[in-house]
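Subject: Interface between my chains keeps coming out wrong

I've been trying for a while to get a sensible model of this assembly. When I model each chain on its own everything looks fine, but I need the whole thing in one frame so I can look at the contacts. Pasting all components below, labels as-is. Any help appreciated, I'm running out of ideas.
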Amino acid sequence: GDSVTQMEGPVTLSEEAFLTINCTYTATGYPSLFWYVQYPGEGLQLLLKATKADDKGSNKGFEATYRKETTSFHLEKGSVQVSDSAVYFCAPSPNKLIFGTGTRLQVFP
Amino acid sequence: DAGVTQSPTHLIKTRGQQVTLRCSPKSGHDTVSWYQQALGQGPQFIFQYYEEEERQRGNFPDRFSGHQFPNYSSELNVNALLLGDSALYLCASSLAASGSTDTQYFGPGTRLTVL
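Reply #2:
Try treating it as a single job with all components included. I did that and got this:
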């Protein structure tokens, strides 16, 4: 069945460090790919998306590229801030969103 | 432009009771999906409604049912509540015409506690 695998958290970084959160998926056909973020005590917010192979989604300094050959959609940011501390979810969407357990990011000053 | 709204914010029920959760989609959206998020887990897809019909369903028992109204708002009903139904219930709306690239926008959720 359709599934997604994210790196285990928590990921702990110092401010201004480089961030990578790995995401691989198994899904029918060529799904759209999404990253959602959940800040403490809040609902899910769309961070970025890509709808076809080699597309790069970007927002707020975060980037992810749709890699069809490796079925991956890794999230990167060049310099994280304390305010980026949250849980990040990679979610392919063949026709509905499929979430993994998420990756908690903790950024310390 | 109002986003997705859900009510109530919190709810406490006892085992065996029934509950109804409500969702109003983002303006201009016609499709509503419901997700269950247990503590420390990712959201799990329950079902999706479009044109007042259930379009697809996840792996949830028949105790979970829903409805969509002509104004696109939606309800989630859970019967015979179990302790394991305690979770954050998220509603998401989208536009069917966007097809497979449709972006789902989430509401703040309803926190259900079953005692």
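Reply #3:
Confirming on my end. Chain A has a mean pLDDT of 92.
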